[in-house]
Amino acid sequence: MPKTYYYDDVKILKKPLKKRLKNIAVFFLAIGVFVGVFLSSMYLSRALSVGNISQTIVFGSTDINIKKHSYFMVILGRYKDYSEANEVALGSTVRGASGYIWQMNGENLVVGNIYSNKQDAEVVKKNISDSMYKADIVELKFPKIKLNFEDKQNIDVKKIREAIEGIDQIYLELYDNSIKFDSGDTNNYAVCTAISSMRGKLKSSIINIQSLMQNKQNEHLQEILNALTKIDELLDSSLLIIIDNSATNYTLKYTIASVVNIKYDLYNSL
Fold first, then answer.
1. Angle at which helices 219-242 and 188-212 pack, to 10 degrees?
2. CA distance 209 to 212
3. CA-based torsion, 72, 98, 223, 209: positive or negative
4. Which of 72, 99, 182, 217 would give a disulfide with 121, using CB separation of 3.0 to 4.6 Å?
């Protein structure tokens, strides 16, 4: 049987547990730093390949990513026959509805109003549940948008992104003005001023998109431009009605529904 000999001048040294744990932590930290540097280099190499890295930091990448989301439409009935839906829509405007007819899946939906969250839609539906209308809530699902414009400068892609997102801003401002007008907190002249301001920003986006298409046509840019142009024409016609204050309440709600419909078509085409 082998023997183990110990000598007085030989000592067995063991590292303290705390120091060993520290070394392990340093090891994993080094791995984390390495992975972080690797991923960053991949992102930055792409930025460097298109020119100035500062453009990516300031204006973002050449990708446009918009998350999927939903709006909620309170409808006053579904009709196969358009003329019947139109009759109901016209009658509903007297009671403060939009009078807009949304065509979906072979049906004509009479729109009361459109909300950005389900809670507001449910409150409105409850309030009109005892009326003559068959109120219901329809969820409008906007798909995720993922576009890439590698042939464009970062600052130009930022303008495209702002043009798309600007449609949401127009919806929110119209909705806010509609609420304020209904409650008497604003008048038709203030609403006209707000719409004129919206048109100013919108026209800037239209000019930006047009300039990007001067040398090279792009299907996605054309679809965005068409949507922006439709909204601009819509705001212009709404402005002429609201300035006379002949149907401000109804016109605002109708315009809201129209803007959302244009956005819905755009998102499903991109």
1. 160
2. 5
3. negative
4. 72
